Amino acid sequence: MKISTGKLILILLIVLFEGFFVTSVKAGGYSSEKKPGKAGGESSEKTSEKAAGDASEQTSEKAAGDASEQTSEKADGSSSKKSSVKVPYDYSANIECVKEPEKPLYGGGIISAASAGGKKLAAPIKGSVLKVDLKKDHHYALSAWLKLSKGTGDITAIIVPPDGKFITAGAIVAQSDCWTLLKGGATTSSEGKGDLFFETNSTAEIMAESIALQGFSFEEWNAHREEVVAKERKKKVKITVESGGKPLADAELSVEWVAKGFPLGNAMTQEILDMPEYEEWFAKRFKWATMENAMKWYSTEFEEGHEAYEVADKMLALAEKHNISVRGHNVFWDDESHQMDWVSKLGPDKLKEAVARRLKSVVTHYAGKVIHWDVVNENLHFKFFEEKLGKDASGEIFKEVAKLDPKPILFMNEFNTIEQPCDLAPLPTKYIAKLKQIQAYPGNKGLKYGIGLESHFETPNIPYMRGSLDTLAAAGVPVWLTEVDVTKGPKQVEFLEEVMREGFGHPGVKGIVMWAAWHAKGCYVMCLTDNKFKNLPVGDVVDKLLDEWRKVPEKPMTDAKGVFEAELFHGEYKVTVKHKSLKEPIVQTVDLDSTKSEATISC
Ligand SMILES: *[C@@H]1O[C@H](CO)[C@@H](O)[C@H](O)[C@H]1NC(C)=O
Ligand SMILES: *[C@@H]1O[C@H](CO)[C@@H](O)[C@H](O)[C@H]1NC(C)=O
């Protein structure tokens, strides 16, 4: 479509590409000719090869452990970024309990075939540990296929680095008639001989196969994240500016992020309603939000029958004013200690009625206005509703919420799943089992599900976080970090940055919301600002990441062919074109979240 503006016809032709390395047919039809020359011939050839479906060969290559060669090829292909990935990280995870274990990842890594791989053997347990040679300052990715000689039980993997401190590297629920994959890991700060062993809470013997322990320097680990960011969070864009049918050379562009892209949000409190400085600080940064407490049952119906939505309504109106998307938090909270007295006292029949009333009330009140619902908060740690209403209470509640508000993604929301492998209640394998139970409830098949991970960290175990995200992402539903914070301590700032980067750098994670809601009398565990809304160091880190993840090119210009090429983060951008032949700048909105590979914009 061309629209004539007097004598001038100006066309912005936007061609979008997936990030650096188009690895699968998923990318569908991005032809290599259109690939910006910057990436070089070798790369485009490789891409078209891949696109042609040669993926299976490639994968078997990987499995054979030839990965390092492959990556250096990749690194050569891209002249714009030097990648220090020697061994690519393997994000795969089979979440089925299987008859035969799969081959070890990374060919076993530093676990030699003689010590573990190939043979079925009793797993190393305390007293018969597996000795491993560990390097200093490395992230170790651990994976193992495990089963028990009888029954069902929890199995925990322990890594003891040379300095002697025990690190819980991961944990799963294992069975006796099939093998379950554990993914996790540990970070070392000393060099030398270490131990690896497994423990169980059952009296059964543990069997282990295909144990793999692969070390990565911190640099390599970061390079994995960068690869994911290039592939999952960015797009190559080609903007062609034409005027009167001819390319407009040397046009000045300005590109400004306005909306969409990777969701990065924060929790808000009702204090925002009366404090313009809070509102301004929040709206300047965040386009996604969760109300800390205002939508919870105890906020909207503290006294039975007296519903009060004024606060939440005003907060939602404020969010709408600033184009902020809101997560609905929450319909129910399975924690007994957070029920009102009047709810705790109800017998099963009366509770059932009260639950139906609450559900209908809050969900219809906000239907169509929230992007997510946290449906039954923390139903792995707690089971108030399951105990009173039956084991399928969560499944039933999901079904009813979906009936009244079909658009939002319906989330489970849980703490310690990626933060803390010592807490066995919310383990990734248990999370997936609960999700499957909810999905299997009659009528729940086609619902939109989400995995909410609260992410309240103390000292993060980054390899465990990644391994757990691998497992959870294999469920095939969007994963969000919903309540990110880090407790106070000398490394709070550093840990927060690590956790945020790990989330942003994982292909399964589709959004991050922080739990740094401001209160005059102090925040839950982490305030981003002081009481004058001046950033604290954690706030500075968040701003740094926001800038980095919405970064636009400096002083973009079209070349002699009227073309400007760049790699931009997903999002919606305002593109302004200035040129001496134009009376007025042309302003266009470009939506890089659209899945279209090509777009023509006329002005
Ligand atoms: C061990 O773990 C399993 C699986 O989580 C659990 O069902 C069982 O109750 C636990 N056993 C003991 C003795 O704690
Ligand atoms: C509001 O957000 C939507 C989608 O997130 C976006 O398309 C739109 O341009 C935004 N509007 C403003 C005024 O920023």
TrEMBL record:
PROSITE patterns cross-referenced by the UniProt entry: GH10_2 (PS51760)
Record keywords, A-Z: Carbohydrate metabolism, Hydrolase, Polysaccharide degradation, Signal
GO molecular function, one term: endo-1,4-beta-xylanase activity
Basic and acidic residues bias locations: 43-52
Residue ranges of every copy of the GH10 domain listed in the record: 249-545
Region (Disordered), start-end ranges: 29-85
SUPFAM superfamilies in the cross-refs: (Trans)glycosidases (SSF51445)
A Pfam short name: Glyco_hydro_10
Signal peptide range: 1-27
Name assigned to this protein: GH10 domain-containing protein
